[in-house]
Amino acid sequence: VEMDCMTPGEVIPKGTPSWVHFGKGDNTFDLQLTPGTHKVALQIGDDLHRTIPGLCQPMTITVK
Questions:
Q1: What confidence tens digit (pLDDT) does each residue in 21-35 have?
Q2: Rounded to whole angstroms, what are the CA distances from 43 to 26, 28, 34, 47, 55?
C-alpha cells in the first residue's frame, strides 16, 4: 500500500503496515483508506519472500 514494485530478488519486508502478506493462502484483506487516490501494488514473492521478476502489478485506486 502506497509502495511501488520492488527490484527483482529484493526481500519483501514483513511486519510493516505497507505490506500485506498472503502466506497462509488468504485471498482477501480489509483495508481502511482515506478518501483520495492511493497506490497499491501486488508483488509476488518466492518461499524466501524474494520478489520474482515480472510478477508485480501496480494499481491506482480512488476512494470516495
A1: 887 888 888 888 999
A2: 15, 15, 22, 13, 6
